[in-house]
Design goal:
This protein has 414 residues and is of the alpha/beta class. Strands 3-2-1-4-5-6 form a 6-stranded parallel β-sheet, sandwiched between helices. A 3-stranded antiparallel β-sheet has the order 7-8-9, covered by helices on one side. The chain binds oxidized coenzyme A.
C-alpha cells in the first residue's frame, strides 16, 4: 500500500527536539527525510543523556526514526555546492537553528527561492518577530513564555512546567501541519512558501482556554476555579491545581496503595449528568434529596468537601478497580498511568502507538509510534540512522560519482 507523502523529499536540517518531531511525523507518512548533520558531530542529542556509552542516545533515536542521515559541512565551499544540489532535489526544507543561522551560511529565503522556487522552507524559532526574536529557546523557556507555566501549578505554589513537551513536540506538530498545507497549496500555485512557527505561539495556541479565562475574569470571578468562592482572584488567570477547567468539576484523588505508589491516583469528573450514580456508589445517596447538594450550583462552593468524600471511597479501591466501577456509571475518569504502565500496555503495542525497534548498536528500544492513524497510509516505524549512514547513497542519488564522493570525504565536506 502506498503512503500519503510518498515522493515528497524533505531536506531535514533540524536538531534537538522541535524540528525532529516534525520531520519524523512526515517520515511516518511516507516522506523521504534526508537528515543533514555536521560531519563527525551530528545532532547534539546523539550524545546527550546517553544510557549506553558511545551509542546514540534514546533522546536521538526516539526522535529520528524513519530518516536517512547524510553528513555535510554546509559552511565549506564544497559543502555549499552539495547543499545547493540538495535544495534543488527536495520539496521541503525544515530547520530549527538559532535565528539567522541559515542566512549566515549564505542560504537566505531569497537565495533558496532562486535555487528552487517550489521549495517550502519551514522553520521553528523560539519567538516570532518582536522584542525577543533573536533569542535561543528551549522547551521550558517556551512553556514559560507561552502562558503554560503561569497557569499550571498549585493554587498558592510557584509556576510549574509540564512533562508534556508542548513547546518542542507541540511546535513540531504545528509545523508539520503548516508544511502539508503548503504542499497542498503548491499543487495549485506551483510555488513554494515560507512556513514559520514560533514556540511561544504554539504554546499559547495550546493554552487558548486560559486566554479565554483571562477575558472572562474581567466580567467576574471564574466560578469553576477552586479559588471560587472562598479564595481571591488577582488580575491574571490563575493556577488552578488539578481543576478540570472545562466547567465540569474534576480533581485527582487518592486510590488504594497511594502511601507507597506515587501513581496510585485517579482523575474523577463529577459532572451533573452522572452525579446520581457517583453519589450512590460512594455511599452518599443522602446528597440526592438534599438541596445543599443536589444541584451543581449548590455543590460549587464545597467541591473540596465533595472530592474528599469521593476520595474516601477511591482509597478503598485500586485506580483500575475505581475505573471499572465508575465507567459504567458514565463518570468520566482516568487512572494516573506511569510511564512503566504505558510502556507495558498491550493495547498501545497493538495499535502501534508504542513500538519496539531494533538498533544495530543499542539493540531493542521502545519508541512512541505515530499517534495519527490514517486508514490508507500504513506506518512502519524504522530505527534511527547512524551518523552519515546514508551519505554515499544520497550523494549518488544527487548524481555524484564514486570519485567525487571520495573527494568530498577527503576534503571534509561530507
Ligand atoms: N555544517 C556546518 N555548520 C552547521 C551545520 C552543518 N551541517 N549544522 C549546524 N551548523 C552550525 C549553525 O550554522 C550554527 O552556526 P552559527 O552560530 O555560526 O550560525 C551552529 O552550528 C549552531 O547552531 P545553533 O545556534 O542553532 O545551535 P545551538 O546549540 O547554539 O542552539 C538552540 C540550540 C535549540 C537553542 C537553537 O538552535 C534555537 O534556538 N533554535 C530555535 C528554537 C528551537 O527549535 N528550540 C528547540 C530546541 S529543542 O528544546
Amino acid at each position: 500500500m502506498s503512503k500519503a507523502l510518498e515522493g515528497v523529499k524533505i531536506l531535514d536540517m533540524t536538531h534537538v527536539q522541535s524540528g525532529p518531531t516534525c520531520t519524523q511525523l512526515l517520515a511516518w507518512f511516507g516522506a523521504d527525510v534526508l537528515k543533514v548533520e555536521r560531519p563527525g558531530v551530528g545532532d547534539a542529542t546523539r550524545g546527550q543523556l546517553q544510557d549506553i556509552p558511545d551509542v546514540d542516545s534514546l533522546y536521538f533515536t526516539m526522535l529520528n526514526g524513519n530518516k536517512r542521515s547524510i553528513t555535510l559541512n554546509t559552511k565549506s565551499d564544497e559543502g555549499k555546492a552539495i547543499f545547493t544540489k540538495l535544495i534543488e532535489h527536495c520539496d521541503v526544507m525544515v530547520e530549527n537553528f538559532a535565528p539567522g543561522a541559515l542566512d549566515r551560511m549564505g542560504f537566505s529565503w531569497e537565495r533558496i527561492q532562486e535555487i528552487n522556487p517550489r521549495m517550502i522552507y519551514a522553520s521553528v524559532k523560539g519567538f516570532g518577530p518582536g522584542p525577543y526574536e533573536d533569542c535561543k529557546v528551549y522547551e521550558n523557556v517556551a512553556q514559560c513564555t507561552g502562558g503554560a507555566a503561569s497557569t499550571t501549578g498549585e493554587l498558592d505554589g510557584m509556576p510549574l512546567v509540564t512533562g508534556a513537551q508542548i513547546g518542542d513536540s507541540g511546535t513540531g506538530l504545528h509545523l508539520a501541519l503548516g508544511i502539508v498545507t503548503a504542499l497542498y497549496q503548491r499543487n495549485q500555485s506551483g510555488r513554494g512558501q515560507r512556513v514559520t512557527c514560533a514556540m511561544q505561539d504554539g504554546v499559547l495556541n495550546l493554552c487558548r482556554v486560559k486566554l479565554r479565562d483571562q477575558q472572562r475574569l474581567t466580567h467576574g470571578p471564574l466560578t469553576e476555579y477552586p479559588q471560587y468562592p472562598n479564595g481571591e482572584f488577582g488580575e491574571a488567570a490563575p493556577r488552578a491545581g488539578n481543576a478540570s477547567g472545562g466547567g465540569q468539576p474534576g480533581w485527582i484523588v487518592k486510590c488504594k496503595g497511594w502511601e507507597t505508589d506515587p501513581d496510585a491516583y485517579i482523575y474523577v469528573i463529577a459532572q451533573a449528568a452522572a452525579f446520581e450514580g457517583l453519589a450512590k456508589v460512594i455511599g452518599h445517596e443522602d446528597w440526592l434529596e438534599d438541596p445543599e447538594w443536589n444541584t451543581p450550583k449548590a455543590r460549587l462552593p464545597k467541591l473540596d468537601h465533595m472530592f474528599s468524600e469521593i476520595e474516601k471511597w477511591t482509597m478503598t479501591k485500586t485506580k483500575f478497580e475505581a475505573m471499572d466501577i465508575l465507567n459504567p456509571l458514565n463518570v468520566p475518569c482516568g487512572p494516573i498511568l506511569s510511564m512503566k504502565e504505558l510502556a507495558e500496555e498491550e493495547s498501545l503495542r497493538e495499535t502501534g502507538t508504542v513500538v519496539e525497534v531494533d538498533h544495530p548498536e543499542r539493540g531493542k528500544y521502545l519508541t512512541v509510534g505515530n499517534p495519527i492513524k490514517l486508514s490508507d497510509s500504513p506506518v512502519d516505524v524504522v530505527r534511527s540512522p547512524l551518523l552519515g549512514e546514508h551519505t554515499d547513497e544520497i550523494m549518488s542519488e544527487l548524481g555524484y560519482g564514486a570519485d567525487e564522493i571520495a573527494a568530498a570525504k577527503n576534503n571534509g565536506a561530507v
